[in-house]
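PROTOCOL LOG
Step 1. Enter all chains and additional molecules of the complex.
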Amino acid sequence: MNLSRGGNTPGAPFSRLLEMLRPDLLRFAFWLARDRAVAEDVVQETLIRAWKSREELKDPAAARPWLLTIVRREYARLFERKRLPTVDVDEVEALGDPALASDGDAGLTDLRRAIMQLPGEYREPLVLQVLGGFTTAEIAQQLGLTQPAVLTRLFRARNRLRTIYGLEPAEDAE
Amino acid sequence: MSSQGLDCRHVRVQIGGDPHALAPEVSAHLVTCAECRRFLEETLAMDGRLRAALELPIAQFRRRAPPARRFALAASVMFALIIGGGFWLLRPQAALAGAVAEHVRHEPGSWEQNTRLPPAEVAAMLAASGVRFDTRYPVVYAMTCPFNGRHVPHLVLQTDTGPLTVMLLANERISRRREFADGDLRGVLLPAGSGAVAVLARSGAKPEGSADEIARGVSWR
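Step 2. Run joint prediction.
Step 3. Record the structure below.
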């Protein structure tokens, strides 16, 4: 199926696909940026870029990872272009974001805040793996790292979260 | 403890790196090491919560409801809980049912849709999720949503008795049909081939009548 054609309006199926996947893109961008306004900007740029490149997407099943990869690139591009504020400022604002709250589940809210406080080098591969569904090999390719380095970062991310979850952390990797 | 050339520390790094894709040598170690098995179980349990934590409620993410509306929402949920309390107590609530209700509750706008989506577009979206779904009811809402670590189709059908939410859960296994109530939501979980289907209605509507027919229309690819 060619997603850029068909239906009554040219490009309508592709637009629909983008709209369907937009919540995922927003979540992903939010965890990268830790700022909902930045996340909205990144997703907007992503959708524009995806629309321009829609002929590249041959298989609808590949749309999600394709779009998530664009989100990551757009975030990196925005970060380079705008020199976004440092982590400490982001953290202060982000930890009070109501999007992190979970009605009736304080543990989930604490876990979200803990994820927010992970250093980017740990948070990004974790979000790519758990939310994005990427394999460690794919994450390694995206981040320009070796696969063992990605595994170590993912281990350290989970190890830091173990204490929030009430578990004893494991001995750290070398 | 060590086995098959790997010690516990290295095994736990592997488990912490990707608890869902373990190398054969890690699996071999786990056969003989109870402590590392426990570490794996703990990590898998934590990962379930981790997924839930990362799946932010987008409705809340996009905008906060005005205080008056939030109060009204809270009041309506409280009312539904009081009314539905007896029903809740009488029926055991499966974790899957609770997770489905929780997910549906995070997308309140889905119930308000009433424009039929082009069937070809819905079919393409479903094909991308590895499922085929035949139904006589118009589909008015179709999204692919993160759920229990997978991405699953979340549909709303417009039926004679009102909207029904349908979630097509290719990776969930249930042994038998199960009806449940969760706040103002009523639902049915049904086995469907190698997966499961959840059908939910709200505000007193009953999904039971259509649920079996809906589940029969599902086939996994």
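Step 4. Note key features.
DSSP finds eight helices and no strands in chain A.
Residues 1-8 of chain A have pLDDT under 50 and may be disordered.
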